[in-house]
Write a structure and sequence with these properties.
Low-confidence stretches of chain B: 1-68
Shape of chain A: globular
Low-confidence stretches of chain A: none
Number of helices of chain A: 13
Strand order of the largest sheet of chain B: 1-7-6-5-4-3-2
CATH superfamily of the largest domain in chain A: Medium-chain alcohol dehydrogenases, catalytic domain
Helix content of chain B: 25-40%
Radius of gyration of chain A: 20 Å
Oligomer: heterodimer
CATH class of chain B: Alpha Beta
Shape of chain B: globular
Amino acid sequence: MKALCWHGTNDVRVERVPDPAILNPRDAIIKITTTAICGSDLHLLDGFIPTMKAGDILGHEFMGEVVEVGRENKKLKVGDRVVVPFTIACGHCFFCQKQLWSLCDNSNPNAWMLEKLYGYSGSGLFGYSHMMGGYAGGQAEYARVPFADVGPMKIPDGIPDEKVVFLTDIFPTGYMAAENCSIEPGDTVAVWGCGPVGQFAIKSAYLLGAERVIGIDEVPARLRMAQEQSGAETINFMQEDVFEKLKDMTGGMGPDKCIDAVGLEAHGHTLDSYYDKVKTATFMATDRPNALRQAIHACRKGGIVSIPGVYGGFLDKIPFGAAFSKGLTFKMGQTHMMRYLKPLLDLVEQGAIDPSFVITHRLPLDRAAEGYKTFRDEKEHCIKVVLKPHGGASPTVH
Amino acid sequence: MTSEVNVADVERWASALGGAAIAAYGIKQLTDRSPAGAALAAAGTALIVRGATGHCPMYSAAGINTANGHDDTREHLAGARGVNVEEAVTINRTAAELYRVWRDFEQLPRFMAYLESVRQLDQRRSHWIAKGPAGRHVEWDAEIINEIPDELIGWRTLDGADVISAGSVRFVPAPGGRGTQVRVRMQYDPPGGKVGAAVAWIFGKEPSQTVLEDLRHFKQLMEAGEIPTTAGQPRGGKS
């Protein structure tokens, strides 16, 4: 089959690889009809995530048709149409039973690596480095899905792929970020980063009852999408001082809830962000937490900072004094996908949201490498790239 | 925890993580090391099993009374002699279920990948064969020296063992209905010569990690019904 493989920083290629096979009794093999490039894949392209190896197949947002099931998989049948959540969970451990699916104890074959780094290991993920399990990803024609009787959710016929493919990651991720804000009537929610996760966080914040949502970014196309698709107010951090503007917009109080949908590669233009770039470029730091610093600084007293953006290591110059002094609450982590699949599918079926609004580019799998670069360099107003491994979409840029 | 080996380990990782630069480097090392790591992980351990209990409180609690051969575990493993390992894991199953599976020694190679086979000789004694490097085998006879159903199995090796060892596994109900804490203690006397090299190969630099991976695989098998793997999945060609 064909698959998009990582070969090093700035080097991803589509190449021929062997077809996947059932390796464990609860596995399934999926023929992938639609897959996508995630903002977090760009951290791989940019070489920010350790324990990658040349030849690793990327991709963790995919859906398709079941073509083979393992002997112990009693839930799926050949021919089922499914979306596959990006976190892999066994369904039986302490964490799965508490619905903390992304913290599953039993799905990461390389748990010892994360234990060395973090003390304990979370769940395995598709296509996201060896410390996250080393599972081959879904930017490919086929993928093997472990514990496929827990994660994949059947999708009724009649709903197009593009309305449900983002149930695999970014819609639940944005939704959990908003849910973590415990939104109350009258709340103002500020969202740093208006990429795909930020767009879904904005939409979800409104769905969960926010009075106002303010999107913060520097890319005009993203700010425009937040305004047009969700009715959000926006701040371009290249043009305005984010703290002063947020303070002013909220009558001097500050936003009640702040979402950092940026993560470890923030592109800021403040003094501290240049400091971070120098330090990460010289390997003296692992992350660039500029957005997180702003969110902590700007949040109102007693507010909540929700962090769906990915961080990997040791963050420098975090204003913890401000966080303590203002009595902030922090919520974060990989998305507990299986909590959200059914409720969010219901929202799609009811017409409360059409997640395909974020798609700007449709490409065949063969052009995936080009898709990465277009997305990373924010060319052609790119916000979200979907790939069609088995055809079905002529390339479009909307 | 392995006494001295673990210190080196902690130092290594502390330094790897201390600074950010070093973090990147440390992880690189981790990656490079991963074939060995994977091997270790797979290693369910012959050694654990071969191994031995080690701990002397437990060992004396086991009440040993057999004859004094020159391979007597009491002599070789007195006090804290040899390599001591202690690891624990919490498994979301009852002590009785876990005990029953563990006590079926012939099934242990399912989650202790380094074992080639275990053969029960009688109610108390069994013969163990572990895979060493280059087709070598490491073998020993073991006997149960203490057994409390659903709670404890203690064992030690008998005269003529390639590795002199003793060990115990304890099953203690976890609080709040959270399953069972499974704790393995073992102690072994690292042999010299070719056998020693085979043992070192199996245990690597971190015997505690090998024991931990065995316990993890046991947990995965008991909770999830299978041990997660990526062995045999597709990947791209080398650049």
